Amino acid sequence: xxxxxxxxxxxxxxxxxxxxxxLSRTFGCVRLVYNKALEERTRAWYGEQRRISYxxxxxxxxxxxxxxxxxxxxxxxxxxxQQALRHLQAAFANFFAKRAAYPRFKSRKRSRCSAEYTRSxxxxxxxxxTLAKMAAPLDIRWSxxxxxxxxxxxxxxxxxxxxxxxxxxxxxxxxxxxxATDAAVGVDAGITSLVALSTGEKITNPRHERRDRARxxxxxxELARKAPGSVNRDKARRRVARVHARIxxxxxxxxxxxxxxxxxxxxxxxxxxxxxxxxLKNRKLARAISDAAWRELRTMLEYKCAWYGRDLVVVDxxxxxxxxxxxxxxxRAELPLNVREWxxxxxxxxxxxxxxxxxxxxxxxxxxxxGDGVRPQRGTSRTGHSSAKQxxxxxxxxxxxx
Length: 402
Prior knowledge:
Elements lengths: L2 E11 L3 H32 L5 H13 L11 H19 L16 E6 L3 E4 L2 E4 L8 E2 L12 E6 L5 E11 L8 E6 L3 E5 L4 E3 L3 H4 L1 H13 L5 H35 L2 E5 L3 H4 L6 H7 L1 H15 L2 E5 L25 E3 L5 E3 H19 L16 H11 L5
Helix pairs in contact: 1-3, 2-3, 5-6, 6-9, 10-11
């Protein structure tokens, strides 16, 4: 069954000098409006315990434009400014719902900038995009086709820290469901191997950051020697940014290929509920974990499973997938990271990562069968054995709790 989804298509474009100047002014005005509205909201809340709504911020923006000090806001399109206020409203909504931290001010030194245009602020005709306040369409590199007959509802223009320009077109797209299959796979994330699969396959971690570490270190040394505020320092900063952009692009491309393959080949994908932020507190492994980008892979699996009609099952992070013997259900007390292969008391020899992936798969199938999570519990049961051991034994056998 095909699914209707809103999908963003991102392309690189090359603006003319006039277009670059117009977009740079727009970015600056968007940042100014966002920060000024945030300042007003913060003052009203902490000084008067009063909340300011989006409508009040929008009315204040109209008054700002009438002042001599901020009259330049009328020189750019009003739509990106209004969208900045909507983004601030969403940030406060997430904060009050305890889904995010308090909104922060946009830094002038931050190199990445963006502006959002709704349908009234751009023209889309014959595959050519023209933004408000511009006479000529953008020179876009169409690296892939838009859906047939699709027209963008929202356009987001951005410039990254490396000075590259991108345009993102939000369109309605129809995604056909992937062919049905009975295959299921358990995925165990790692560092030596990016992921180990329950089939016994291991996908090697490319370690993109490590491969470009020498180039990055050289660019950072050159940046450190430049005088603050100089033109040469800005050029050196861009060289550092280009190295980072190369690393990020290659990593994202590889993760897209891995996630797409897992979703297309399997009806059910089972992963662990890892909290990467907590794992980054390990100073010895933080750099390698960041380079592996487990959270990004998880996000890709989530939306691609939703697109193609697959099932993504998430196993509780406290499930002892690594220490559990998939044959007899015994949980080993300790298993240091340097032990990559271990032998259970029942005589079974386990590869650390593959065994964990198989246990994750078994636990995920148990969750699908009984509709309950697999969480180790403290204490003992009527049989005298720990409930954690019984829970993991049931999970690997696919048996629901009584």
